[in-house]
Amino acid sequence: MPVIDSHTHILPKDVKDNIHKYLDIDSTFNTLFSNSESISTAEELIDSMDRLKIDTSIILGMGWNDNKFNEYINDYIIESGKKYPERFIPITGIIPNGDNEAIYEAERCVTLGAKGFGEIHADAQNINIIDKKKFSPYVEILQSKNLPIILHSSEPVGHKYPGKGSSTPNKIERFVYNFPELKIILSHWGGGMFLYELMPEISSSFKNVYYDSATSPFLYDQKIFQIAIETVTSDKILFGSDFPIISQSRLLQELHNVIINDKDKQNIIYQNAKSLFLTN
Ligand SMILES: [Zn+2]
After folding, report:
1. Ligand 1 centre from 6 Cα, in Å?
2. Distance 150 CA to ligand 1 centre (A)
3. In angstroms, rounded to a whole number, what is the distance separating the alpha carbons of residues 82 and 100?
4. How many CB atoms lie within 10 A of CB 199?
């Protein structure tokens, strides 16, 4: 069964070798990396995919604040996608402030082959995800190509971590209502949002919403895989690790521990990602 990891991050070797320089250049980079050395280059990600027999990784941008840094990282993501076309699907970062330079960059990336935008780190970017006006130009670009957005999401409860932010279920609901036709992938189980799909009014408006399992072992008991399947079905769940913050093997281990049904497994580790990222 082929395996697609729907949530990974890569950065250029230059950034990895010069963390201190870039801490001063981009405030999101500072929030996420001032106490972390977890940076992987494209080649390091390929190595770990080879070891773990992962066929394809979705390589995501992040929610940067500096236009030039965003462009630099997006170039690296797009070039890595071209260098390893069988292994990587590029998703580029956006700065959803509505400025012309930021919108132009989003258009540029899609023209160059980006298959979606994300991961959005709204709090680090001083944006509220319920701000429809700010997000509209980027959503238009995505919808014209039927491409998804990936939102970092978090719980309103539990332990804090760098970049946790406040894209919590109450705001996510508003975001989805603002853009009901947009394909939306909520990272980190949507901060628990999927449980509210037991409410009929939520499930009926969340037809285009998906959930990924990024960093699940840091947040939830492994039972969450089965609970999510029972709640929203395996059609809406994506295996995503958040490598290099966590090893893909920990996620795969939990998934294989908990999920018994082969069809569910296939949906989560391959089929859903294929439909979202490989059919455009
Ligand atoms: Zn995240």
Report:
1. 12
2. 9
3. 27
4. 11
> Residue for token digits 């429809």?
132
For residue 47, the one-letter residue type is: D
The 10s digit of each residue's pLDDT in 74-117 is: 999 999 999 999 999 999 999 999 899 999 999 999 999 999 99
For residue 62, give the H/E element and its range: none
Ligand 1 mean position, distance from CA 2 (Å): 24
Q: What is the CATH number of the domain that holds 121?
A: 3.20.20.140
271's CB contacts (< 8 A; 6+ apart) are: none
Cβ pair 102, 67 in contact under 8 A = yes
Number of structural domains found in the chain: 1
- How many CA within 13 A on the CB side of residue 159? 5
Two structure tokens written together for 265: 């497994």
Which structural domain range is residue 179 located in? 4-277
